[in-house]
Amino acid sequence: MFFWLKQGTAAPGAVHVGFAADSEAMVNDAHAAALAAGATEIHPPGPQLHYDPRYYAAQVRDPDGYSLEFVHKNWQHGS
Q: Is 12 helix (H, G, I), strand (E, B) or coil?
């Protein structure tokens, strides 16, 4: 995990914030709530096979332009 701050003009398109969820249902609920609050969809909830089949996530862009990702990593199932 990394986090940094720097002086300058805010660049919302350069910001990506991930939120860990305890279940796929929580990812789905967070995604729906974000869309209801005015976010736009980047990718719908589902397995992110380019990372790992156990990586379930959804991603939105909030009204200020920030990228938000809701993630459930189910490392207990599968290999």
A: helix
Q: Which helix (H) or strand (E) holds 9?
A: none
Q: Which superfamily does 16-73 belong to?
A: 2,3-Dihydroxybiphenyl 1,2-Dioxygenase, domain 1 (3.10.180.10)
pLDDT at 78 over 80: no
Identify the sign of the CA torsion 31, 33, 36, 40.
negative
> Mean pLDDT in the chain?
89
User: In the block, which residue shows the tokens 């009204």?
Assistant: 63
Q: Does position 79 have pLDDT exceeding 80, yes or no?
A: no
Query: Tokens representing 57?
Result: 């996530």
The SS3 assignment for 32 reads: helix
Coil, strand or helix at 22? coil
